[in-house]
Amino acid sequence: MAQTREINWDQVERDLDEKGYATTGPVLKQDECRKLISHYPEDQRFRSRIIMERFRFGSGEYKYFSNPLPEIVQKLRTNLYSPLAKIATHWKKLLGDTTIYPETLKQYLETCHRKGQTKPTPLMLKYQSGGYNCLHQDLYGEMVFPFQCTVFLSATSEYSGGEFLLVEQRPRAQSRGEAILCEQGEMIIFPVRDRPVHGTRGYYRTNMRHGVSTIRSGERFTLGIIFHDAR
User: Residue 102 is part of which domain span?
Assistant: First the structure.
């Protein structure tokens, strides 16, 4: 369950620094992906359901898990946080920020809760043919952890299109985009809001947004792991 021990965190950090995102090998097995997908109709597991069209977010829907989170989701969120917190602290330092992130997710969430952000943010997203997600940032209050993760739950043979989109807005330059497709159980790690980039005068900040391209056929499920809670 939750094969995070196999992640090469040195490579993840290099990829995040160089490309602005990192992909991993499978962190969930096929049966674990199927189990999570089977939970989607069970409304009692979720605190809210968002129909994207109502808010002009795109076309599709997603649900935020309620506490307690499913064991698989809780383990992923907990195990991924600590190594990412080290990278997050390093990124802040590169940008001249003295923020130091706590070593454990429990400590970080305690800070979120003191700021009034108490609602869990891990979610599942469902897209069908014609669905898409507009470019956006997942910001829910003052507390914003710099990274989030998406785990691909559906096999690529079950849908077409639906690439993960990541767009970087560079100062005084045109935006740079990536379209990424991962296999079932694989994960992408990416910035929530911005990242440091090395330039001729040192490090500067670029703005990041993510989304999903149009699903041409089939059905696509993903799991989103966000580390800060929401108001």
Answer: 6-226
